[in-house]
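Page 42, continued from yesterday. The earlier attempt failed because a stray header line got pasted into the input along with the sequence. Redoing it now with the clean sequence only.
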Amino acid sequence: MSALSTLAGRLATCRTLLLDITLAVGSTMVAVLLGHEYLGDWRSMDATGYLLIVAANLPAAFRRQAPVAILTWCAGAWTLSIAVGYWPALNTYGTFLSLYAVALLRSRRVALTATGCAALIWVFAGLLAANSSMPSVLAQTVLFNGITWQMGTSARKLEQRNRQLAQLTEQLRQEQADRAQRAVVEERIRIAQELHDIVAHHMSVISVQAGMAGYVFDSDRPTARTALAVIADNSREAQEELRRILSLLRTSATPADGDPARPPAPGVGRLGELVDRMRTAGVHTELRVDGKPQPLPPGLDACTYRVVQESLTNVLKHAGPATATVTLEYAHQRFTVRVIDDGGAARPAEPALAALAQPGHGVLGMRERARVYGGTLTAGHRDEAGFQVILVLPLP
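This time it went through. C-alpha cells are written below.
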C-alpha cells in the first residue's frame, strides 16, 4: 500500500510538471507570435527581444519547485525588457504564472509582498507607455495583480482543506480498523467465556457423576444408572451449547440449507432446568424469586444464567454434598442474583472453598460479564459457613 501511494504521488508530480512545462512553452510561443505581429509604438523585435521573451516566460515551467526564485527571475527579465523599450505585454505571462504559484505555495505575507512588486512593475510600464492614463494604469494594476493573488490564495485554501480532509479520512479509516480489531478481540473473549462456562459446568457434573457411578457400580446399580443418565443428559446439552457457540464463528449470517436450527442462548427461563440438573448431580438446590418477574434484555438474560451456572458449578466442585439457594430479586431499576451455599456437610471441603475464594478464572470471568452490562459481582466466604456470589445488574 505504501509503495502504491508513493508511485501514485510521483505520477501526480510528473503530471503536474508536464502541465506546467506545457503552459510555460505555450505562453512563450504566444509572446513570440504577438511580438512578431503587433508592436504598436514600442521597440521592434530583434534577437535581444526574443531572448528576453524566453527569459521572462519559459522559466515559469518550474515555478512550483522554487516559486519566489522563479518569480524574481521572470519579473527581473520583464522589467529589463520594459526598460529597453519592448512592449510590456509580451512578458507578463511568466510573472503572473509565478505570482500565482507564490500565492498558492507560500505564506500570505510573502504573497502580498510579491503582488506589490509585480504591481510596481506594471506601474513602471505604464509610466513609459506613450499617451497612457495613470488612473487606467492603476486600475489595471489592481485588477490583474489582485485577481492573480486572489486565485492563488483561494487555490491554497482549497488544497489545505483537501489535505485536512485526506488526513481526517485516514484518521477515520484507522479508527474504524481499530474498532474492528477491538470488536474481534471482544468477541473472542466473549466466546472464550462461553466455552469456559459450558465446559467447566458440564465436565464438572460429568466428572462427579462418573466418579459416583464407578464407586457404586457394584453395590448400588440404580444409583449408578442414574449417574450415567445424568452424564448422558449433560453430554447432550453440552453438545447443543457448543454447537450454538461454534455457529457464531460461521461466516454466513443465516444457517445453511439443511442445518438444524440453532438453539437459543440460555437465560433466566432455563434456570429451572439448571437447578434440576444440580439436584441430580448431588447439590440440593433451591430457586427463589422475589418481586415481580420481568423480561430481561438478551445480554443481561444470558449473563444471569452464566453467573448462576458458574456459581453452582463451583459449589459442585468445591463444596461436595451441599445445599445451595439461588435467589432472583426484581427491584426498581435493579436486578440482584444471589447464589449461596452452606459449605457442605463435610469439613474437608473447606480447603477447596478457600481456593475458590481466591480470584480464579471463573470468578474473574463472572466479574467481567457483570462489568460489561454495568453491573457488579462480589464473591467470598460467608461468616457462618459456605460461600456466596452476589450479582447486581441495572435494569433499563
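Notes: Residues 2-132 form one domain.
Reminder to self: strip header lines before submitting.
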